[in-house]
Amino acid sequence: MEALAKYRYVRQSPRKMRIVVDIVRGQNVGNALNYLHFSPLKASALIEKTLRSAVANYMQKNEGSNVDPERLKIKEIFVNGGPVMKRFRAGSMGRASRIRKPSCHLNIIVTDE
Predict the structure, then answer these.
(1) Rounded to an integer, what distance in angstroms lies between the CA atom of residue 7 and that of residue 106?
(2) CA dihedral in degrees (66, 55, 113, 33; nearest 10)?
(3) Which residues contact 103 (CB under 8 A, 6 or more apart)?
(4) CA 60 to the chain's CA centroid
(5) 53/40 Cα distance (integer angstroms)
(6) For position 52, which CATH number holds?
(7) Could you read off the pLDDT tens digit of each residue along the chain, which spans 113 residues?
(8) Which end of the chain has the smaller Cβ count within 10 Å, N or C?
């Protein structure tokens, strides 16, 4: 049995999110939550929140059976790029400098297998 959690339009660049995602990919949920909780990176707090949501979705799906959240494993976790907000800022000599504000989409699938 699997459960999915999505966090869309995260206001952080996909490149920074993938640094943390690559570390927790394939781990069991207990170790991943322990790492994410004590990591100082902004992305780790967002990923931890989504991972807890995926575990809650799994528990909701298997309401009748006795499920131990510590046995769950991260089957898939990936980050896709989202829309980029483009802004302008005053530059030197009357020019305009472009500012890109990227976003991304985070998907987590947990399983008990």
Answers:
(1) 5
(2) -120
(3) 9, 10, 11, 12, 81, 82, 83, 84, 85
(4) 20
(5) 21
(6) 3.90.470.10
(7) 899 999 999 999 999 999 999 999 999 999 999 999 999 999 999 999 999 999 999 999 988 777 888 889 999 999 999 999 999 999 999 999 999 999 999 999 999 87
(8) C
Domain containing 19: what range? Answer: 2-111
Q: How many domains does the chain have?
A: 1
pTM: predicted TM-score of the whole model, two decimal places: 0.91
**What's the maximum distance between 2 C-alpha atoms anywhere in the chain?**
68
Kind of pairing, strands 104-111 and 85-90?
unpaired
Alpha helix segments (H runs only) across the chain: 14-24, 29-38, 42-61
- Which residue shows structure tokens 């995260």? 10
Q: CA–CA distance from 79 to each of 22, 63, 67, 83, 94 (Å)?
A: 10, 29, 28, 13, 38
Q: How far, in Å, CA of 105 to CA of 108, rounded? A: 10
